[in-house]
Automatic annotation (TrEMBL):
Protein name: Cytochrome b/b6 domain-containing protein
GO cellular component assignments: plasma membrane
Membrane-crossing residue ranges in chain numbering: 12-34, 54-75, 100-121, 141-161, 217-234
Native source species: Adonisia turfae CCMR0081
GO biological process, one term: respiratory electron transport chain
Lineage: Bacteria, Bacillati, Cyanobacteriota, Adonisia, Adonisia turfae
C-alpha cells in the first residue's frame, strides 16, 4: 500500500521551492564571501575566491525577485500558516498540546519571513566596494551578517517544526511535482485575470480601507521591499 501525503497547493510548493533554493545558495555564498573578505570570527579552508561576492549578490537578487510573490501568497492563500491573533494565548496556556506546536510552527514561519526581509533589505543597503576595499565596520555590513545568522537558525527551526507538526509525510509533500487538475498552472492565467478585474473594481475605490485592514506585518514587509529598491536605485544615481 502506497503511503499517503497531505496535499500542498502547487503554487505554494513552487514559490516555496524557488525561494528556498535561492536562499540556501545565497546563504552558502554569503559564508564564502565572509570567509574570503573577513574571517574575524573564524574561517574554514575554502579558496579565497574574489568573485564570490558577486555570485552571492546574484543569488540574493534572485531571492529578492521571487520573494514578493511568496509574500503575496503567504498573506493571502497561505495566511493560515502564519501567526494568528490567538497565538499568544495558545502558546502560554496550552504548552505541549498539539495546537501549541501548530501555533509555534506558525510563529516560526512568520519569524522566517521577517528575517528574510531584513536580510534582503540590509543587503541592498550595502555597497559592493566595501568588502574588496577592506571596509568591514559599516553598520549595514554588520546588520547583514547578523541577518544571515538569524536566517540559518530560523530555517533550521522551521524544518524542525514542520517535521514535528507534519512529520515525514508533510516534508515529502512539499517536494513532489504532482498537482490536482484544479491546481494546474494552465489555470493560473485565468485566475490572475479574474483577480485583477476584481482588484480594479473593488480595491481602488476602497484602497484606504484595504490598507488599514491588511496585516501590519504584511504592510511593513512591502514597505521594506519597496524602500530597498528605491534606496538602491537612488544610490546608483548619485
Amino acid at each position: 500500500m502506497k503511503p499517503t501525503y497531505p496535499y500542498q497547493p502547487f503554487l505554494l510548493r513552487l514559490l516555496h521551492g524557488l525561494t528556498g533554493a535561492f536562499l540556501v545558495l545565497a546563504i552558502l555564498t554569503a559564508f564564502w564571501t565572509y570567509n574570503t573578505y573577513d574571517g574575524r570570527w573564524g574561517t574554514i579552508p575554502l579558496p579565497a575566491y574574489k568573485a564570490i561576492e558577486g555570485i552571492h549578490g546574484t543569488f540574493g537578487l534572485y531571492t529578492l525577485l521571487i520573494f514578493p510573490a511568496f509574500v503575496f501568497y503567504a498573506f493571502n492563500r497561505g495566511k493560515h500558516r502564519l501567526v494568528q491573533p490567538e497565538a499568544l494565548t495558545t502558546l502560554t496556556q496550552k504548552i505541549g498540546q498539539p495546537i501549541w506546536w501548530v501555533n509555534l510552527s506558525r510563529f516560526v514561519n512568520t519569524l522566517t519571513l521577517i528575517a528574510l526581509t531584513f536580510a534582503l533589505f540590509s543587503g541592498k543597503m550595502m555597497d559592493e566596494k566595501w568588502l574588496p576595499n577592506g571596509e568591514l565596520k559599516h553598520f549595514w555590513y554588520y546588520g547583514h551578517l547578523v541577518s544571515w545568522v538569524v536566517m540559518v537558525v530560523a530555517i533550521a527551526i522551521h524544518l524542525l517544526m514542520n517535521a514535528k507538526v507534519g512529520g515525514t509525510p508533510f516534508l515529502l509533500s512539499m517536494m513532489t511535482w504532482k498537482f490536482r487538475p484544479q491546481d494546474s498552472p494552465r489555470l493560473w492565467k485565468n485566475h490572475i485575470i479574474a483577480w485583477w478585474k476584481n482588484f480594479q473594481l473593488d480595491t481602488w475605490p476602497n484602497w484606504r480601507h484595504i490598507l488599514t485592514h491588511r496585516p501590519k506585518l504584511e504592510l511593513a514587509i512591502w514597505i521594506s521591499l519597496i524602500a530597498a529598491w528605491l534606496i538602491s536605485i537612488a544610490k546608483e544615481l548619485v
